[in-house]
Design goal:
alpha/beta; UDP-N-acetylmuramoyl-L-alanine:D-glutamate ligase; four-stranded mixed sheet
Length: about 325
């Protein structure tokens, strides 16, 4: 079983309007509300892959109850620890010209007592876990070392961890020794303190590798850098792999979460790094091609899988 941790889920609300009147009343032509947050997207993708999983995390108030109910209707096995504060919402306005404006709430304040209760439930879930995924931002009230604590608990239970977060939480989480961390270029550049792009605007692979190596030195066993249309670069103790998907257009929201889901699934299935990265790049591309984050079609996945190229460079 794959245990997915989402400590800061959200209810994603999208309003579609012909034009936006910022000084008056707007009447949307369509409204969509669905469970969101990076961990939720990972769980929904794993379910679509047919993986055995459980989504854990924190949820509070009417919004949190609504998210849990919606996940139940989607068939995602969920065990969220209740908190007193209201789970956050995100609001996106899409106008007829394709312009997108987002309003993201900061999220609830989580108490130490609530986090301790979550840790108790998480510890029980680890007993049946093959892999744990820790994905997304941390809610207010939790220290930057919260993910490191959960990774250490997983290690004590003999369960490898996949981490996808940013900033100090990523750095401290990497130091706890996860099996894989998956930063994107922006997150990796922020930690490196420098731009990682080449003169042509694409990623500077030498600079990306150096930045990834720093995370490995910090403690991560492997680093997979997601580079958008340039693909995925995996830096491990056994070698480096570069997976390049075919060009695809669409909605990139949730593509990184699909990559994380594929990496975790590959761990469970025992796929070697080349195949693990091939599937991750393909699933990310298939998600871009889908209109809704966290979804993909089997046809797009299969087509993308056949188009991915993977190059390996041995270490030493």
């Amino acid at each position: 079983m794959i245990v997915v941790v989402c400590l800061n889920p959200a209810l994603d609300v999208t309003h579609h309007v012909t034009t936006v009147n910022w000084a008056g009343v707007n009447r949307p032509t369509a409204v969509h509300a669905r469970p969101g947050g990076k961990g939720v997207n990972v769980a929904r993708t794993l379910r679509a892959l047919g993986a055995d999983l459980q989504l854990t995390g924190l949820a509070g108030g009417v919004t949190g109850a609504g998210i849990e109910a919606a996940l139940g209707r989607l068939g995602v096995p969920t065990a969220l620890t209740p908190i007193a504060a209201e789970t956050r919402r995100t609001f996106t306005v899409v106008d007829g010209g394709g312009a997108v404006t987002a309003f993201n709430e900061a999220g609830p304040e989580v108490t130490e007592r609530e986090f301790a209760e979550f840790r108790g439930q998480y510890d029980k879930a680890l007993a049946g876990a093959s892999v744990v995924v820790l994905s997304g931002s941390l809610p207010r009230g939790l220290s930057a070392g919260a993910y490191a604590t959960l990774i250490e608990m997983a290690a004590a239970a003999g369960v490898p961890a996949v981490l996808d977060t940013h900033g100090e939480a990523l750095l401290r989480g990497a130091a706890a020794g996860p099996a894989i961390v998956k930063p994107n270029l922006e997150e990796l550049a922020s930690l490196a303190g420098r731009r990682l792009s080449a003169a042509d605007g694409g990623p500077d692979l030498t600079a990306v590798t150096a930045a990834a190596d720093k995370l490995r030195i910090a403690g991560a066993q492997a680093v997979v850098a997601s580079m958008g249309s340039a693909g995925l670069l995996a830096v491990t103790g056994d070698g480096r792999w570069l997976a390049r998907p075919a060009a695809v257009t669409g909605n990139a929201t949730g593509a990184g979460d699909a990559v994380v889901a594929a990496l975790a699934h590959g761990l469970v299935l025992g796929r070697p790094w080349g195949e693990r990265l091939r599937h991750a790049a393909a699933l990310g591309s298939a998600t871009v091609a889908a209109p809704v984050a966290g979804e993909f079609s089997d046809y797009d996945y299969a087509s993308a899988l056949s188009a991915v190229t993977v190059h390996q460079e041995e270490v030493g």
